[in-house]
Amino acid sequence: MSSTPTSQPRGPVDSSRIPRYAGPATFARLPRLDEVGSADVAVVGVPFDSGVSYRPGARFGGNAIREASRLLRPYNPAQDASPFALAQVADAGDIAANPFNINEAVETVEGAADELLATGARMMTLGGDHTIALPLLRSVAKKHGPVALLHFDAHLDTWDTYFGAEYTHGTPFRRAVEEGILDTEALSHVGTRGPLYGKQDLDDDEKMGFGIVTSADVMRRGVDEVADQLRQRIGDRPLYISIDIDVLDPAHAPGTGTPEAGGLTSRELLEILRGLSSCNLVSADVVEVAPAYDHAEITSVAASHTAYELTTIMSRQISAARKTGDAALTPGQ
User: What are the phi and psi torsion angles at 93 (to 5°)?
Assistant: First the structure.
């Protein structure tokens, strides 16, 4: 099945004709998936936060990001691209996961992701807590095999269990390594910082294959050098990017469940992502936005721009693959 379009992609609502604050809050005011039939990039929410270990509220993150995304515009000058004209991007709504049963919720998210990826779409997922990264990675790995992972987060998220639970927002990447769905030659945390339970946390993480670029590394070495290092580590492998918004300093993202001082600025995060535009980004997520702790939509605005940059990267690659006829990169092949 091919998703090659027969007409121009349908883009956002024209904000010169209908005010940005009017109408339903789809991501970037894009059409719903049911309005266009199929999409190259499906923006989907997962309103689930039963895996959190501290402050809840990320179940409301997806809709908060959508509201903040009303101000996004169709041309991205930083990447010199109009992502919504290059590929069909649509809002696929939410995956309704059981808030009272984590195991069932994980299965539900995986099944829904399987269905979306089967249409040829790439996924831009709005969380929700970081538990959802595991089922999303399972689904992506069914299509691409073990994938490279860039994990932007204040925390490692490779712990074993919390209160005996295997599926939580602090354990998804240990489970993913154990299940063989990650390419352990191309794994990296970015922006980690703060206290740990012990040095063993770092030792275990290294044994799993992760490299670490701390927030202090970004500050000292600069975004260009960091992006270059990450590109070299990833190479041309299929790449999944998972972004916990708490990778940002609480000054830039107060609305999250487990904030840590000393994080990235929103500018640093966006610039690193732009530096990864040549990587083969097959899907991505932005998680842990908890709007109850936000003010002036600071966190939601940062998250919406982060998702916009990721969507732009995917749209550019889809468009380029169509022009060259690259079956390895063209959606639906």
Answer: 75, -155
Q: pLDDT of 4-32, one tens digit each? A: 455 799 999 999 899 999 999 999 999 99
Q: Give SS3 for 47.
A: coil
Tell me the β-bridge partners of 165.
162
Count of H-run helices and E-run strands, the chain:
11, 8
DSSP assignment letter at 73 = -
Instruction: For residue 10, give both structure tokens.
Output: 């349908």
Kindly give, in sequence order, each residue whose CB lies less than 8 Å from that of residue 100, ignoring residues fewer than 6 positions away: 50
Q: For 97-107, b where at least 16 C-beta lie within 10 A, e where not — what string?
A: beeeebeebbe
| CA 115 – CA 113 distance, rounded (Å) | 5
Euclidean distance between CA atoms 160 and 171, whole angstroms? 6
Task: Identify the pLDDT of residue 4.
Answer: 47
What pairs with residue 43 in β-bridges? 91, 124
Characterize 60-78 residue by residue with b for buried, 16 or more Cβ atoms within 10 angstroms of its Cβ, and e for exposed.
bbbbbbbbbbbebebebee
**C-alpha distances in angstroms, 26 versus 12, 46, 82, 131, 288?**
9, 14, 18, 24, 19
Global pTM reads: 0.95
Tokens of 7: 């007409």
